[in-house]
Amino acid sequence: MKCRAYHVTPSFEWEKKNDRYTMRYDLENGKEIAKCKFPNKKFDLKFPEKENIVQIFTDGSKMKKGSITHVGFATWSKMDEFNFTCTINDIASIYTAECKALSYLIDNITNKNYSEFVIFSDSKKNEKILINLSKNKGTFYFEHFYVNKNKPWFYNTGLSRKSTVSINRIRCDHNSLNSNLYRHKIVDSDLCKCGEDADTVEHIFWCCKLSKSERETLLKEIRKEYKIGPYSVINLLALSNVRILNTISEFIDKIDCKIKNFNHAKPRSNSEKVPCDTVFLAL
């Protein structure tokens, strides 16, 4: 696997309009069609076929036969090039399957030469994600850590530059753990190398068996300040307790953790930022 490094965050090179792009969506027609006595006829009236406009349907499903569970998704269109079926991890939910369907489809239609795509999905949760894409940018940091001060959080903490960088990566939710790399399509799985759960900051600190001995020291030091758990890395960092910050820093330094090393993936070209002009979610 090769990761490219950049002097600035790749997203800063994108056109500003792409950060605030909002897909058009339609829920009312879907509700109206669902209540209709003849839904198929109503659908054809609402969404007639038009030249150079591609209609595509997505669906996710989860079925259990005996002790075996099957989870997958599919996309379908009258144009064969957009027809696809895929089986995913059997522990995934129907919601995850629906998201995978939309994710696959949007990636697939990015460079197609059609003026407009209309995507139909029966998942209302996906609609909320699409609507709030631009609204959610940067909210993690401001919800957990923002304080209106003239000096940075690490002022007078005595932390090394290396420790400051590692903690900053946790604070802004950008690190080299598999959960983050998978979200940006850099690796094929978000699984931790212990094989038991997703490779997240909270998992590394509190659950991963590969850092068990280091965790004992971590918990011993934390309990000197806060005797009662459970603990959260994010909540502990937000307290700005210098002793806790040093304890967390020491834990990161001792374990084999990818929080300390981060390379950015190759950014998408500007033409890929807005993959489809219209998204209808017919319920």
TrEMBL record:
<dbReference type="GO" id="GO:0003676">
    <property type="term" value="F:nucleic acid binding"/>
</dbReference>
<protein>
    <recommendedName>
        <fullName>RNase H type-1 domain-containing protein</fullName>
    </recommendedName>
</protein>
<dbReference type="InterPro" id="IPR012337">
    <property type="entry name" value="RNaseH-like_sf"/>
</dbReference>
<dbReference type="InterPro" id="IPR036397">
    <property type="entry name" value="RNaseH_sf"/>
</dbReference>
